[in-house]
């Protein structure tokens, strides 16, 4: 018999999780800032994922957003603190790698219920889940080139693997914003439904996945080691890029 933990057992000011019928629904709760992620929000999400990982009552996790946005991605302005260039580069590299490793190494099926616009890391983390269900109001945008940063979240490898080379270029190089139906045609999204049906559909998909005894597809395909190495190299490149953007002329000893 499955014990039902109290609702909202895992919560904070920026994220909360309800556990019911072996599924945890983690909702990003920073709608005033379009559910963008500061470092503290990412740390809190990782804590909740860790608790879900060790909770035997949780068999699958669904990620979704509160309000009109799924997530506007990383909130760099609220996260980057004044520090030496070498310290900043090391911190960005390690933090970015840990952020995406949390998705890659999560041991249970993971789903994204994208309820609205997803930008940057919100798109790349969704691509690291096992199945994406999108509202018909959802859009997907990875404006890395416009921001002057390299691709992250394994997208330099994973987008081409999932979407094909031409579509990966549309998203990563051209920074094209795509709607839910286009994402479905590309293969980024597995199902598009009206907004009112999003969470119920995601729960049904998760239940069917659990009932079929399915695990995490890229782990079963032997891709975990490759994806973690891609994440490591992308994180090194991001650390360098962010440091260059903030310190255009670092001193030699900080380079």
Briefly characterize the structure.
The protein has 255 residues and is of the alpha/beta class. It is 45% helix and 16% strand. The chain contains eleven helices and ten strands.
Can you describe this structure?
The chain has 255 residues and is of the alpha/beta class. The chain is 45% helix and 16% strand. It contains eleven helices and ten strands. The protein has helices at residues 39-54, 76-79, 85-104, 121-127, 144-147, 155-163, 165-172, 180-186, 198-211, 217-220, 224-246; strands spanning 10-11, 15-20, 23-28, 60-65, 110-114, 118-119, 131-135, 139-141, 178-179, 191-193. The strands form two sheets. A seven-stranded mixed sheet has the order 1-2-3-4-5-7-10, with helices on both faces. Strand 1 and strand 2 form a beta hairpin. It is globular.
Radius of gyration, in angstroms, nearest whole number: 18 Å
Largest sheet: 7 strands, mixed
Taking the alpha carbons of the first and last residues, their distance comes to: 58 Å
Mean pLDDT: 90
Task: Give the overall shape.
Answer: globular
Low-pLDDT regions: 1-13, 249-255
Question: How much β-strand is present in the residues?
Answer: 15-25%
Strand order, biggest sheet?
1-2-3-4-5-7-10
Order of helices and strands: EEEHEHHEEHEEHHHEHEHHH
Characteristic key phrases:
10 strands; alpha/beta; 255 residues; 11 helices; 45% helix; disordered C terminus; disordered N terminus; three-stranded mixed sheet; globular; seven-stranded mixed sheet; single chain
